[in-house]
Amino acid sequence: MPPKAPANHPSYGDMIKAAISTLKERSGTSLPALKKYIEGNFNVPDNYNVVLKRVLKSMVSSGKLVKVKASFKLGEALKKAPKAKKPKAKKPAAKKPKKAAKKPAAKKPKAPKKPAAKKPKAKKPKAPKKK
After folding, report:
1. How far apart, in Å, are the Cα atoms of 26 and each of 1, 36, 45, 71?
2. For residue 6, what are the contacts with CB-CB under 8 A and spacing of at least 6?
3. Digit-coded pLDDT (tens) for 70-123
């Protein structure tokens, strides 16, 4: 039996994650939308539907995806994965001489506000009623 040729596409998990994060649907990405995105952006074989459904099911059971009705959202495990990169060690910055701190300007005391005097309302004389 000849050795199996490597796939022309990334792993199904990576394709699913890319589809969900790119589409950014509020209520989750549906299976038909996932299929359409994957077919349009990746070179997948004809029988990819079977594998896609199996991978979706396993990702939901492992917590990487959350199933909401008939749609899928990224789970906490996939949301945190990109942030796991280690920052590069930075060289200590050269110390700068400190400048003398400026004194804040003296604040003038505010005069207390006086309540506005209420003006009495002028009453209009009533017109006599006509019969």
Report:
1. 47, 18, 29, 10
2. none
3. 888 887 766 665 544 555 556 666 666 666 666 666 666 666 666 666 666 667
Identify the structural domains of the chain with CATH numbers, from first to last.
Answer: 12-82 (1.10.10.10)
User: Is 66 in contact with 27 (CB distance < 8 Å)?
Assistant: no
Which secondary-structure segment (H or E) carries 19?
A: helix 12-23
Q: Read off the pTM.
A: 0.54
Record the tokens describing residue 100, joined without a space. Answer: 């003398």
Retrieve residue 27's tokens.
Answer: 């209520």
Question: How far from each other are the two terminal CA atoms of the chain, in whole angstroms?
Answer: 115
